[in-house]
Amino acid sequence: MKKKHWLHWSAVLFSLTLIMTGCNIGKRTETIIISDNSEQPPMDQMNKSFKVKSIYRLPPASKLLGWSDNKSVIGIFKEEGLSHLQRLSSPYEKPEVLQKMNNNIFNLYMSPDGKMIAQTRLSSYGPSLKLISVKDGKEKIEIPLKSNQNIYLQDIAWSNNSRFLCFLSSSSMIDEPTTIGVFDIVLNSLQTYELVELKDKGTFVGVNISDDGKNLLFTIIPPSKPSNDSSLIFVTINSNKIETKYTHQTNGSKTTWLNNYQFVFLGKDETLYEYDSRNGDLAILLEKVSIYEFSNDQKKIAYSLSDEDNVYIGRFQGKNILNVETIYQGLTPYELYWSLDNQSLLLQGRKISQILQTEEQVFIIDF
């Protein structure tokens, strides 16, 4: 009896073993693809639509410089005259005068962090470039330049992290090449590089510098070409020399660095491209784009299409624009600025009234 009893339980154990083994035979292997973006937003945030909380209409502006903090914008507003730099803070009703700019109000370039303004001035000794504090309107730094009446400055631009300020310096002398100046705010140092190999490429109309100060994007109009037939030239600074890495036809001077390796630009066909210099990958993000602007954290994009008068916002992830929504209708924007916290959008554009007249309007949209 004991032997039979033992045989009975042995058979049971053997059957269970077969069942468990059969389950394992059918087990599948899964491959999980992890994106190269280490900071992925939660799924509920990715699927969340944009909700407009408030829309503020601002006074007409002769020039907008951008945001000095999350609730204040800097510009020259027509209600206060044309000779004053002003701050307009929430609820955006009465501009506050910051500094009289001696009528030199258009050569102003504010850093992305809203702390400094670069201003070019021209005297009998030649051009000068100074950095002015937005907080108190006082001059903080004068960038050392060669005093020469034959020299003029153009295309001043800040890096996204507000550390580097770059500018082109050209001469009226035919034999002298254009140079690019790169000023490091942290080290208080200026480096200049001659653009010898770009000398015969055409007329410079734009420049953009990466956060590490080592990569540059030039926009150039080739000789005997219309202004909308320009070329983007991506170069690197290597051992104090400029090396050309990539060229592409563009539709204007607007370019954007996503990081030190990837940048975005509008092609001649109004296609918004992203280029990765690490592997030479060129991706299409959007088509028929007339204007665009990425948020400071590179997670949102505001844009308008060439055949419409609407303003759109979408979430930028990888090489995709997701959750696109129309946030304003009836306006053709030509200036877009994201607030520092990426929760508000400052836009300036043209709106056609009911009597078919074009009006210049400025808005702030809070999300």
Radius of gyration: 28 Å
Work out the helix count: 2
Looking at how many chains there are and whether they match, the oligomeric state comes to single chain
Largest sheet strand order: 14-15-16-17-18-19-20
Order of helices and strands: HHEEEEEEEEEEEEEEEEEEEEEEEEEEE
End-to-end C-alpha gap: 81 Å
What structural class is derived from the secondary structure elements? mainly beta
InterPro entries: 6-blade_b-propeller_TolB-like
Protein name: WD40-like Beta Propeller Repeat
Organism: Lysinibacillus fusiformis
Describe the structure.
It comes from Lysinibacillus fusiformis. This is WD40-like Beta Propeller Repeat. InterPro entries: 6-blade_b-propeller_TolB-like (IPR011042). It is a single chain. The chain is mainly β and 367 residues long. 8% of the residues lie in helices and 53% in strands. The strands form 6 sheets. It has a 7-stranded antiparallel β-sheet with strand order 14-15-16-17-18-19-20, with no helix packed on it. Strand 15 and strand 16 (230-238) form a beta hairpin.
